[in-house]
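Backbones bend. We report:
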Amino acid sequence: MGALLIIAALAQAATSGGPTASTSTDSTAPKINTGETNYLDLEAGAGYSSNPNLSVVNDQGSVFGRVSLHGVHSRVSARSTTLLSAYAENVSYANHYGSQQSVNVYGRHDAAVSEHARLFIDGSASYQEGGQLDTVVLGLPITPPTIPGGTVTPPILLPPGGDFLSVTGRTYSFAGHGGGTFTLGPRDSVSLSSGVERVVFHSGASRTNYTRIPASIAYDRQLSARTTIGARVSAEDTEYNGPASLRVITPQVTARTLLSPSVTLDGALGVSFARVNDGIAIRHSTGLSAQANLCGHGETSFFCAHFSADEQTATTAGPARSIGGGIDYTKRLDADQTISFSLGVTHYSTPISVLVGRTFSSATYYRAAASYSHRFGTRLFGGVNLAARKLTQNGPDPKTDLNASLFLRYRFGNAQ
């Protein structure tokens, strides 16, 4: 397993082009800087991984050296937010594993185009070998919530997660989404969104790819200053290479409430109606669809806990029922020290294989990563990265991948 976490300092980034302002009157809320932030982190490290490829057969451990770059641009104004992040790493192992590369590019922009409409667009592209990006957490500048009055979420970018098959090979993924929220009245709003996602997977003789098109429409009504309820209908069409396809329609009721000035709970509950065509037979299924998120912040800390259950989820192996959850947390201990961690687990059941000659059983994928960062000077940082990955399935399980490394990081651009 390659090098893991790159956590940028959580101290407020130095800005240019505008004054400093906070978007919240909560005295414990983190300060959000308006203006522009630009920096490039160059990092080098060395460590040990017990099973870099999460393989059953070739599961020898190895020491490694790692070099990575992470560039960030953010711009915050009274009406819009722009965030761009580009990350690339090379991990070189001491034995026959050779080198592995990972790349992730992410961008989003949202803007209030009028008093009654706010639009957004986002896009991402990534390449990874052996699921390496599943153990990467990238620190980002703090930006305002995309929903007016929403909670500031942890300044952490999690690259697209792998599934039980994609973590064993090479994966290319591309995604883009757009939409908006439109105010109907003092308490009512409608939201629309859609997009396209593309995933390509290679591992030995196994090759598969799929294109997913999601869309949703939602209505929300504010009952009080703290509580909003609504309804949402989402649909998706997933086309695999060959004749296989997946179509899902999910109506849900939704709710969002402020448990305190700095903690928000939101969720959705409904039923999914799925149609799966594996090229031989068409199958219909109905099942629970649920999501929940609990997010909050203190003056120097941020967290989000999330849960989801889906009747059918697109994976590189084929459609599968899934249930999972995780926790992301980061805290600035003082002006020079930061800790962060990300934990996640997803269980897949009743997968329908789209790969000729291969069948799959239920599987559970665990991931955990943690980082400690210390600033030694204006631009120099050092610290420790730790991570673990585990894949369980019916049949032989690969040995748990444990990773530990030391790193040094130098920042160009905004120094804080």
